[in-house]
Amino acid sequence: MAALLEVRNLRVEFPTRRGVLTALDGVSFDIAAGEVLGVVGESGAGKSMTGAAIIGLLEPPGRIAGGEIRLDGQRIDNLPYERMRRIRGKEIGAIFQDPLTTLNPLYTVGRQLVETMQVHLGIGAAEARRRAIGWLEHVGIPAAAQRVDSYPHEFSGGMRQRVVIALALCAEPRLVVADEPTTALDVSIQAQIIALLKRLTREKGTAVMLITHDMGVIAETADRVAVMYAGRIAEIGPVREVVKHPRHPYSVGLMASIPPLDRRVERLAQIEGAMPRLSAIPPGCAFNPRCPHAFDRCRAERPELLEAGATRAACWLYDPASEKHVPESAIHG
Amino acid sequence: MFAFILSRILQALPVMLTVALISFAMFAYVGDPVAIMLGQDFTEAQRDALVRELGLDQPFFVQFAKFVVNAAQGEFGLSYRLSRPVAELIAERAPATLELAFCAAALALLVGVPMGVYTGLYRNSWLSRFFLTFSLIGVSLPTFLIGILLILIFSVWLGWLPSFGRGDVVQLGWWSTGFLTWSGIRALILPSITLGLFQLTLIMRLVRAEMLEVLRTDYIKFARARGLPNRAVHFGHALKNTLVPVITIAGLQLGAIIAFAIVTETVFQWPGMGLLFIQSVNAADIPVMAAYLLLIALVFVVINLVVDLLYYAVDPRLRVERGAVRGA
Ligand SMILES: Nc1ncnc2c1ncn2[C@@H]1O[C@H](COP(=O)(O)OP(=O)(O)OP(=O)(O)O)[C@@H](O)[C@H]1O
Ligand code: SF4
Ligand SMILES: [Mg+2]
Predict the structure, then answer these.
(1) Ligand 2 neighbours (beta carbon < 6 A)
(2) A25 alpha carbon – ligand 2 mean position (Å)
(3) Which of A88, A102, A153 lies at the smallest CB-CB distance from B227?
(4) Inter-chain touch A153–B320, beta carbons under 8 Å
(5) Which phi and psi angles does A272 have, rounded to 5°?
């Protein structure tokens, strides 16, 4: 069965005065219907960029310079603006990071819900309003029938993110791109928001691309995880495998830097060095200057995603033809 | 709401009193009204009588209080130059200025806002570049020069439009209007453009800057991500969010249009309050000058109040009750 979303060799470029920057390079992954794909990686790895490319809202001058994005087998990366607009909201919803800035301050939340549903569902104003109240109830806004006429500033941050979730889901899209939906929220309500998102998308069978820095959220919510590094996917696989037995040396470092919940540690492991700037991505494997296992081939040839046990990793260690091929369990610890 | 208006009016009082003080000071320090009114030949007794009649022998504060009380009733005495009540002179001239200011403001808003929206949305189109270049002219050329150039082109060379005066006016009670005759409307065109051009370009540049700012916000990106049509995003979500600063500036500019109609009225010999003011300055006709000054201050105060009320209408965040903490 074809996946709901297929991303193939996606390449995003930014023309700048000092040459063209490649923000995403050869990114490929699938999301099946109803599946939750977690996307993790250091700041600047290209997570948001990938989400923006999928919803067709890359900030100019950024542009898709290669590859394909398919929804249900149909290419959506090269559609004219108006055709893509009909897909946004209707087929692919989006949830942004900061609920304090995501809602238009001058319109009531009800009006924002009503206009979204009217645009996509072709329903009348009265019906849209009825459904808007229903959605507010659905996302856990108390006294929804009264609150529908409130303005965003009359809600708390957590409540606003609930409204944003309602807005993202109200036209019943099949995929939601959620870019750090809890990062801007108070720690005490992050879990509630994630639980809400999980419950609603499961009920409706909505697939989710969940971008986050929170491994706890990933472990609890995602079916699969993609680890991104310097505009590329370093590793992708089932969530338990990637979190518990990462194969790519970068994933290993990333997972080791997460404080375990069950025991105290003296000092968290850190990956030496920093992610390269887009203008200075090294040849070969982008991770090679920081990689404890790097060998000659890593500096010359760029690794594709290779089978690495239960996951796939872009690392030459997993190519049987490499001079330094290792059994996948060997690089842990 | 009522409390809000009341508090704004109370806040405006010191402003008006200060302007009144300045106006009043003109009587005392700019020229000697007694000397002006008596002319060349007078006796000491005549002089003393006039001083007493005008109340000039009384203490400063008593005189000022009288001035304020009279001014509040629209009573500014007689014009030195024309020997007619000042209030009557102003009432006669006000319609000309207000109609001109109205046309100039309408021009500035109805053309400036769409041009600003357009140049904000299509930053790199050649039309936007043209508008921006054109707006530099509007901002940098002095008003009198624009007026003279327009007269030169449209009156002298092309002979299409009159170069001075209001044309034929129709009397509606005490109000004289140029809107009801063809020649009155034609006469309004060049002065309105002259007076409104600066404001037009200012508003255009302001709307453009605000649009660029707003288009970068998350809620606009989110509106796009929800698949709203461009029309709704641009003219609903974006434009409405640019309105608060635009209302402020547009309001102040309307005040400026009325106040600075002086130059345009002089260039076009437009029989309005500005021209009256200039003639009064030349003749040291202090009662008229004082009345004009106070009237302009009043216009600004009223505009400020209207601007604040419009904020209320546009931005729900300001409707939060005073003192209430914004929900976290
Ligand atoms: N307008 C732009 N011009 C050039 N480079 C850009 C532009 N916008 C983003 N980038 C670069 O693209 C890369 C990917 O950015 P992106 O926002 O996708 O990172 P991210 O993984 O979402 O990080 P974070 O966790 O901080 O959100 C970054 O290196 C960033 O500097
Ligand atoms: S390819 Fe080489 S440098 Fe890159 S992660 Fe694997 S071992 Fe390290
Ligand atoms: Mg991001």
Answers:
(1) A 248-249, 285, 287-288, 291, 293-294, 298, 303, 315-317
(2) 17
(3) A88
(4) yes
(5) -60, 145
User: Does the C-beta of A47 come closer than 6 Å to ligand 1?
Assistant: yes
- Here the tokens at position B262 are 């002086």
Q: Which chain B residues contact residue A119 at CB under 8 A?
A: 226-229, 232
Domains and CATH numbers, chain A: 1-81+174-244 (3.40.50.300), 92-172 (no CATH), 251-260+268-274+282-333 (no CATH)
Residue in A with minimal Cα distance to B311: A106
Domain B93-273: which CATH number of 1.10.238.10, 3.40.50.1100, 1.25.40.20, 1.10.3720.10: 1.10.3720.10
Whether this prediction's pTM lies above 0.90 is answered by no
> What ipTM was predicted for this assembly?
0.91
Instruction: Please state, in angstroms and rounded to a whole number, the distance separating the CA atoms of residues A232 and A242.
Output: 16
Q: A30 C-alpha to center of ligand 2: Å?
A: 24
CA–CA separation, B153 and B148 (whole Å): 9
Segment A53-101, tens digit of pLDDT: 999 999 888 999 999 999 999 999 999 999 999 999 999 999 999 989 9
Q: Which residue has the tokens 């405006």?
A: B12
Nearest 5°: CA angle at B252, between B247 and B255? 130
B43 vs A272: CA distance, rounded Å: 102
Domain boundaries, chain B: 93-273
Under 8 Å CB-to-CB from B13, ≥6 apart: which residues? none
> Concatenated DSSP letters for B249-304?
HHHHHHHHHHHTHHHHHHHTT--SHHHHHHHHHHTT-HHHHHHHHHHHHHHHHHHH
Residues for chain B: how many in total?
328
